[in-house]
Amino acid sequence: MPRIVDHDRRRAEIARLAVRVMQRDGAESATVRGIAKAGGFSIGVLSHYFRDKDELVGFAFQWVAQQSFADLDAAVAGVPPGLARLRTALEFMVPASGAPSFIRVWLNLWGGAMGNPKLARVHRDYYARWRRYLRRYLREAVRQREIAAPRSLRNTTDLLTAAVDGYWIGAAFEPRRFPVRRRRALVAGLLATVLRPARAA
Amino acid sequence: MPRIVDHDRRRAEIARLAVRVMQRDGAESATVRGIAKAGGFSIGVLSHYFRDKDELVGFAFQWVAQQSFADLDAAVAGVPPGLARLRTALEFMVPASGAPSFIRVWLNLWGGAMGNPKLARVHRDYYARWRRYLRRYLREAVRQREIAAPRSLRNTTDLLTAAVDGYWIGAAFEPRRFPVRRRRALVAGLLATVLRPARAA
After folding, report:
1. Across the A/B interface, how many CB contacts are shorter than 8 Å?
2. What ipTM does the predicted assembly reach?
3. Which of B11, B34, B134, B152 could be cross-linked to B29 through a Cys-Cys bond (beta carbons 3.0 to 4.6 Å apart)?
């Protein structure tokens, strides 16, 4: 077993390294050569863990997606279920930090995913999971009578997902229009616009 | 003058060619060498029109942005001002065609723009212009008493922009979840959710 554990751990370390290279220098630098150089090991070592660049980049994106949900779980852990968790999760997706760590990586995933079915699949799996989170919070909020049941849970989930994507893209490229305080206000406004108050009993 | 006209026309032709290469093969293939090869001319000819790859790619993205607004103008030309134009413009931005021509190019712009201020500027200019369109249509719709004045024109514009960005990203990577008919329904639902009906006189 130790060898397998080591192998998996090494792959995760290399994925982390590839992500760092993409964050710093963009996807074009995330070549086998560039990643090996950044890690201070030979190309031969790298090819022991990944067949080719495609496998490495695909694995790195999966690692980013996995990490994002681990961070999201941590962000909502102390927050009560329902509406409060929904708000926290949406705010989490429109990062407050000035230089959001995974944004560049995710934009590069999109750039590559149009011509690469494996990367497109990482996108689909990520969004399917993100929508499950949102549906769960929405259902909790309805059950706790914080909001009325959405007319369409599917459409409401897709609108929240879409709007938050647009906001973080805006925040990434137009930080002056979307300063941190305004991002929170936009998320609050989004919820006030999209959700309907529960009827008085 | 003819020489300048020829020069500008040639630059536009090369930009179109670069966009075609990006659409077909992704940003990685939009090298000076790859574009020259696709056009059937030498690298020397290309360097007569563009100093380097960055200048060429920046110009190509500007050309795409320009072309998008020309297409948008054509799409709304026969549509009455106000709410009808707003709907048409939003539908235009969530393309109905199965293989939307500029989506791959735009995703590649984003991938590159995080590390390239000139490309980031193309994004900002494009979005500033797109928001001007939306504000104009919203104001027309208010003036024509089709809708109540938004509580915040700025927030409403940013929400419409953000949601539509999220929808076309969804449509690009999850066409089965976002079939063409549903895209129209989502735009209609977005307007119904975000806009408030005009008060009866």
Report:
1. 124
2. 0.90
3. B34
